[in-house]
Amino acid sequence: EYIFIEETVPKQTLIWLVKKQKSNGCFRRDEKHVDTAQEGREGDQEDIALTAYVVGVFLEVGLNASFPALRNGLYCLEEAFLNGVTNGYTQAILAYVFALAGKEQQAKSLLSILDKSATKTNNMIYWERDEKPETDNSPSFIPSALSGETEKTCYVLLAVLSQDTQDLDYASKIVQWLAQRMNSHGGFSAMQDTTVCLLALTQYMKLTGSNPQNTVTLSSEESEEVFYVNRNKRLLVQHSKVSKGHQQYTVDVEGDGCSFVQATLRYNVPLPKEASGFSLSVKTGKSNSTDEFQTKFELTVTLTYTGARESSGTVLVDVKMLSGFTPVVSSTEELKFNSQVTKTDIKNGHVLFYLENVPKEATSLTFSIEQTNHVANIQPAPVTVHSYKRDEYAFDSYNINSISDSQ
């Protein structure tokens, strides 16, 4: 099924984009990018990465090569290529665009450069960020590869698959790394890298056979379950809940084609003490209620960016509710008037705040929570803050027992 889009919409979008093209064929960015953490999108090569992205979209939708905006955009990218592109992310997206445009020489040259900077281990190939993080001591439940790395790797995969002659053996080693980074919901670190990677994985699936005939058997000492993967079920997620986590499971696959098997283990862990890039504190206080029994409380989350950059870029603050408590929606909605808060959301007992940026000065978010059910022996609830594109994070927890008597 497809979503109908009025024919005038893409035409108006194209007209708007053409107005953003400079005389040298490059596209200009009018607004500051909401997240400066992505490689290739800051500094001298910002316009090149943006132009490559736009030209790539032109080619993907099948615009005629004689279309002026496409032709001029390719000229901008070829000039940048001749002058030398040093940023790894820009090299990756340029390689993909040149491969799409049929410019094999430029694509092969960039892929050769990228191959030299690739990390190759355990029959896998992937690309790390040009800038190394300050610390690698992140907890095990923080993704080891953040959005910049997966997006960069997926653009290389797209470049490899978009050439006239595809090296599927090389591509399979990239796909093997990506498969280990996919989360239990089928995505990666963020919406942007997920979009690019799903396109790359789809291209890989088309080239490696779209008519699988596989029998996948999951067995343990106590049980056995069989899954059938064929043309009719190739996009169907089949799953089974295992009875025990601590036992040996065996997966046997028979047939032709590719099948993706993933095991997901969910468990609770104590909040770690260390932090990287942020300072975070949470305080609870009594509201101005006149009720005999206090049921409403104010929660203040204060965070400061302490990383190496001037500011954090896009940040997510996740406040888990205490057992028996719910947020007062009107108080969370009021925070949308905070210039740094772009969105608030309430999902599954969590209050989520999306911040465009956290500066070096302290930023406070205050809202109300209300006790709707009486629960004995309430345990502390976690609060986390983490950057969308970098492994920068901080953790804290709160409880109603921590209310300051001075408030």
UniProtKB/TrEMBL annotation:
GO terms for cellular component: extracellular space. Residues 312-398 form the Alpha-macroglobulin receptor-binding domain. InterPro entries: A-macroglobulin_rcpt-bd, A-macroglobulin_rcpt-bd_sf, A2M/Complement_sys, Alpha-macroglobulin_TED, Terpenoid_cyclase/PrenylTrfase. This is BC048546 protein. The gene is A2ml1.
